[in-house]
Amino acid sequence: MKTKKVLGIAGGILAVAVLGGCIYLNTLMPIITGYAAKNLASAVFVSGRNQADVEPLDLHFSFIKFNRNKVDMEKKTVTSRFLWYKSTAAYREGYGVTLLRGKGKKEFLNQDYPLPADSYPDYLEKADDNLTARLEPIARALVDERSYNGHPFAFVALYDGKIIAERYDKGIDAGTQLLSWSMGKSFTNALVGIMAGDGLVDINAPMDIPEWQNDARAAITLNNLLQMQSGLGWNENYGNRSDVNLMLHREADMGLYALSKPLEHEPGTFWYYSSGSTNIVMRYLCGKFDSDQAFLNYMRERLFSPLAIANPHFEPDMSGTPVGSSYLYVTARDYARFGQMFLDDGCVGEERILPEGWVEYTTTPAQASEGRYGAFFWLNRCGVCPDVPEDMFSCNGHDGQQIYIVPSKDLVVVILGYSPKPDRVIDFNGLLRDIISCLPEK
Questions:
Q1: What are the angstrom distances between the C-alpha of 211 and each of 30, 183, 255, 258, 345?
Q2: DSSP state of 322
Q3: Which run of H or of E encompasses 11?
Q4: What was the pLDDT predicted at 5?
Q5: Beta strand segments in 8-103, E
Q6: Which end of the chain is least crowded, N or C, by CB within 10 Å?
């Protein structure tokens, strides 16, 4: 009798544990399937890569590798399935890929804003042969031999505004648009600067966000968000059911999700890296225009066109807002020209794109960041790259996407690819040290 009772209790506990596990796993399903669908669709339809190359590299980790992915080349969709759940991501010409979430999927796919294809002459020139020859062994070691670790797809280095090194992995070339991940935050920074210069926003004024007007969040400024010091609660852990994963893979309106978080610290007093902050900013900027189309036209005309960035894909969420934290696709040379603009104090040639003082503001350490962060840019003042000058600042993206800007060396370096932490991350300090050692003395 006692044995039956013990077995019954044990069976009940096991059933509860299994049920609890299934419930928790079900909450992970949008992340597991959404990550695969979104990233595979962008890789295929934006970057032009092959499914057979993407799955064993970019998607071969954790539960993500167990998805069954179907690519529909005619409809330009990817559907990813894991156990009982599926997610679909769809490509739209001129806009890129969006993970379909919430209501109104058909209406969203039928939206038709004219985004005509454009082209610009590439104003980047190549440096003299002697300098490029000195960099050639480094480029070969990085991309072909992977001697610096990781799996680079693209590498471009500029010195004095000219190309001193350029190399691409198999299946990638100078025309391939590649994912920014969090380097997109730095492009959002530039867009804020341009709009501030045009008098459309004030970075130091409280923001007129309706959801914040009846509580202490009303004091949050654009500056607080740009410096990652909003004080809003947030979890940026990429390895679990965190805020950032739920935002990117479950939410139809990512900025709305992020701005709904409670205030946990007084604005401007506590530093915490948050992708949600950037999507609040992008949603706020978009709201300054009469339509999504007007915002996209402004972004192209005032930011991308002066940089000769043709047909960029700043992919939107279901609300129509570009995902400023993560989902920009442009070429390696495009990223390099963006970095050069910041090295040149916000100018492209003789044309000023960013307002005077914006780069200085961008590279001023956020008060609570201990010298590691400015405004949507990372800083080397904390010595993260000890063999690189302290004035270096950078755009850092997930899995090893980097734009390094070193003013004292007149150097811009772009590395893109799949180089995840901790075991496959590129030795960026060693790479930059070796590049700098090849440059002429100034």
A1: 26, 28, 12, 11, 36
A2: B
A3: helix 2-45
A4: 63
A5: 68-72, 77-82, 85-92, 96-99
A6: N
Amino acid letter, residue 427:
D
Here the tokens at position 82 are: 């894991």
CB 232 within 8 A of CB 264: yes
**426 contacts 415 by C-beta, under 8 angstroms:** yes
- Percent of the residues in the chain that have a pLDDT greater than 90, as a whole number: 87
Helix (H) or strand (E) holding 152: strand 152-159
Interval 173-199 mean pLDDT: 98
Question: For residue 115, what pLDDT is reported?
Answer: 76
What is the C-alpha to C-alpha distance for residues 115 and 297, in angstroms, rounded to an integer?
8
Q: How far apart are CA 175 and CA 161, in angstroms?
A: 20
Q: Are 333 and 174 in contact (CB under 8 A)?
A: yes
* Alpha-carbon span 32 to 153, nearest angstrom: 24
Which stretches within 207-330 are classed as H helix? Answer: 222-226, 243-250, 254-259, 275-286, 292-299
Fold of 131-437: Beta-lactamase (3.40.710)
Phi, psi dihedral angles at 441 (to 5 degrees): -70, 140
pLDDT for 4: 63
Helix (H, G, I), strand (E, B) or coil at 206: strand
* Per-residue pLDDT at 35: 98
Phi-psi region of 149 (alpha: psi -120 to 50; beta: other; left: phi over 0): left
Token digits for 226?
Answer: 């740009």
Q: For residue 321, give the 3-state DSSP assignment.
A: coil
Tell me the pTM: 0.94
How far, in Å, CA of 60 to CA of 288, rounded? 40
Report domain extents, the chain. Answer: 2-109, 131-437
CA 72, 73, 75, 79 dihedral sign is positive
Residue with tokens 């590395």: 415
